[in-house]
Amino acid sequence: MSDSVPRGIEPTGLQDLYRELILDHSKHPHGRGLHDGALAQSHQVNPTCGDEVTLQLQPGADGRIRKITWEGHGCSISQASASILASVVDDDSPEQLSERIESFRAMMHSRGQLAGDEDLLGDAIVFQGASRYVARVKCAMLPWVAAEAALSGIR
Amino acid sequence: MTHEPPLPLRFWAPLGRLACDMERHTVTRTGEHVTTSTTAGRTPVLISDSYFERLRQDFPLLEQSVNGHPLVYLDSGATAQRPVTVLDAETDFLLTRNAAVHRGAHTLAAEATELFEDARATIAAFIGAQPDEVVWTSGATEALNLVAYAISNASLGRGGVATERFRLTAGDEIVVTEMEHHANLIPWQELAARTGATLRVIGLTDDGRLRLDQAEEIIGERTRLVCFTHVSNVLGTVNPVTHLARLAHEVGALVVLDACQSVPHMPVDVAALDVDFAAFSGHKMLGPNGIGVLFGRSELLNALPPFLTGGSMITTVTLESAEYLPAPQRFEAGTQQVSQAVALAEAVHYLNDVGVARVHEHEQHLTAHLLSRLAELPGIRLLGPASAEERSGLASFTVDGVHAHDVGQYLDDVGIAVRVGHHCAQPLHRRFGVTATTRISTYLYNTTAEIDFAIDRLATVREFFGADDDGANA
Predict the structure, then answer these.
(1) Chain B residues near residue A9 by CB distance under 8 angstroms
(2) Considering only alpha carbons, which residue of chain A is nearest residue B435?
(3) Quick one: what percent of chain B has pLDDT higher than 70?
(4) B410 with A133: Cβ contact below 8 A
(5) Which of A137, B59, B364, B425 has the greatest number of C-beta atoms within 10 Å?
(6) In chain A, where are the structural domains located?
(7) With contact defined as beta carbons under 8 Å apart, do B282 and B347 qualify?
(8) What is the CATH code of the structural domain delimited by A14-152?
(9) Helices of type H across B107-203
(10) Residue range B96-349, CATH number
(11) Distance in Å, alpha carbon of B80 to nearest chain A alpha carbon
């Protein structure tokens, strides 16, 4: 994965938050779009900034979650987080998805201390830097909270 | 060469012996520095930044570094920083005069009560009101809710014949505007819902001014209340208060003014503005949190039924009922924020020493500079009037392709503090088709150099987030 400092900008602590992978996902998001026949859906709002996400669990075989799709608007962190979540989930069992969400939450609440389990989180470990920015943790969490709420509707 | 008025003497006093042991004004207005007051009546002189730069030494918080850069505090619209004299006034009161007010006969209680009432008189004089027209509240939000709930109680029949004039029923109309802060919108939505009255809304022009043509249509014989902000906390628009007050009064409606963004920044005279109620908060005008003011015309306050009830607001209480004190005590049930009131009065002394007209002039200068520099940047969309006239010292804007939170984070990285989000004005943002903006707001301690620093940083934000990759501005 490409994760260098964006060109032409003097490096600062900001690069730790806005990793290039995050900026790429926020500009070219994966998994956008809502569809009929979803397993479950959740709409979450961050009331302090107005960021919104509507997230759907798309049905696979045997009660599995084939993929996640979503629509929403907000800051680059929340948008990239939704995009990366959508890219990580691939025919998950509800238990698997739940495990990913718990792992992501543990990393985001660690204030940069937890590196994150790459097997569970894949590219989402890139948000470790964001976990140091307390005010931005809720931005990154927004789609994962939506996934959790949607999941609770089918379990 | 510009002529600079001298600073109030206390600015030069060593920190630590400012507020204590000084009879203010007897000490501070002596000697050579008395010219502060004598310059006030002369032709206005251009105040250079250096005068205001020197004020900064009264605000030690501004001296710190954030993320390795000097703090550039451009968020006074949210909360202002406090000068040492204000902090000292509060500490001094707590160290030497603290007692419950309006109860108890001991010396300390009497002294505390006197300072509390002196503070009320100071605030009253600052806004052209009488002391009994100033009600202490926790802030502007409580002040506005106080009016709404007092009217609500009147609508339920509380207060008998005397409160009939305030009663709202189905068919009555409450008028607000599309630029209101939630604190001057939701209390009226709720009041309308409780009483059956209808909420009417004055819309905005594309450049962020009130649609006065609409105001004239909407304000009519059904109108009972007209509630609007003096200065928009997002657009910076200064509204034509006397014009709207005249429209309201012509049809017998009452005027409620949100003065949160005006009282700290410009001379405000509630009598001259001809408003019936006005609300503002201490923490936006160099004072403490947890203290605010409701101004109400004496005749109205004394006719309204109370909102919060309890101790210290009654004359006679039986097990069945109670009779109430006149205003302002009628609206000050329970323990009061005494040290905060005393400190707020000190904040007013500070503003008076600098001269609130001079503060306004300085902010006008900063705003003109801010607007012209913002206009240089591609991809920036300003909300609100494009010129500094009839505009306060703040500017909210969007950045093409970059969310406001990311803009704020990018500025914070070099120590620049701004507000991002909807600024408690969601309907206003919706009106302009956006969910969030970045707001730069100034006060007396800001300088053009700080504006320049913020603008220079803003100039690279779109590049950082790749927002200019595909656009014409690349």
Answers:
(1) 460, 463-464
(2) A50
(3) 89
(4) no
(5) B425
(6) 14-152
(7) yes
(8) 3.90.1010.10
(9) 107-126, 140-155, 186-195
(10) 3.40.640.10
(11) 20
Judge whether B405 is closer than 8 Å to chain A, CB to CB.
yes
Answer whether A76 sits within 8 Å of B436, measured CB to CB. no
Interval B293-314 mean pLDDT: 96
C-alpha to C-alpha distances, B45 to A40, B138, B143, B403, nearest whole angstrom: 67, 37, 37, 41
Q: Which amino acid is at B31?
A: G
pLDDT at A93: 97
DSSP, collapsed to helix, strand or coil, labels residue B199 as strand
Considering only alpha carbons, which residue of chain A is nearest residue B434?
A: A50
Q: What is the pLDDT of residue B287?
A: 98
* Residue B439 near residue B423, CB atoms below 8 Å: yes
The answer to whether residue A2 neighbours chain B at the CB level (below 8 Å) is no
For residue B223, the surrounding DSSP H or E stretch is: strand B223-229
Peptide bond into B328 cis (omega under 30): yes
User: Is residue B322 left, alpha or beta, with left meaning phi > 0 and alpha meaning psi from -120 to 50?
Assistant: beta
Q: Check CB contact under 8 Å for A50 and B422.
A: yes
B237 contact partners, CB below 8 Å, separation of at least 6: B179, B208, B209, B210, B231, B384, B385, B390, B391, B392
Calculated CA dihedral for residues B424, B425, B426, B432, nearest 10 degrees: -140
Is any Cβ of chain B less than 8 angstroms from the Cβ of A151? no
Question: What's the confidence (pLDDT) of residue A47?
Answer: 84
pLDDT the model gives residue B469:
64
Whether B424 is catalytic: yes
CA of A48 to nearest chain B CA: how many angstroms apart? 7
CA distance B81 to A52: 33
Backbone angles phi, psi at B446, to 5 degrees: -85, 155
By CB atoms closer than 10 A (0-12, 13-18, 19+), residue A98 is middle
Question: Residue B433's pLDDT band (boundaries 50, 70, 90)?
Answer: very high
Residue B99 carries which side chain, given as an amino acid letter?
A: A
User: Of A105-119, B10-24, B143-157, B346-360, which range is least confident?
Assistant: B10-24
Nearest by CB: B405 against A9, A23, A139: A139
d(CA B304, CA B158): 9
pLDDT in tens, A88-122: 999 999 999 999 999 999 999 999 899 999 999 99
* B77 pLDDT higher than 80: yes
**Mean of pLDDT over chain B:** 89
Nearest to B384 by CA among B77, B174, B175: B77
Euclidean distance between CA atoms B172 and B196, whole angstroms: 8
**A13: which residues sit within 8 A by CB, 6+ positions away?**
B67, B413
Burial letters B366-391, b for 16+ CB under 10 A, else e: bbbbbbebbeebebbebbbbeebeeb
Q: Is A74 on the interface with B (CB under 8 A)?
A: yes
How do strand B394-399 and strand B437-441 relate by DSSP bridges? antiparallel
- Bridge partners of B348, per DSSP, are none
* Cα–Cα distance, A103 to A148 (Å, whole number): 12
- DSSP class of residue B240 equals -
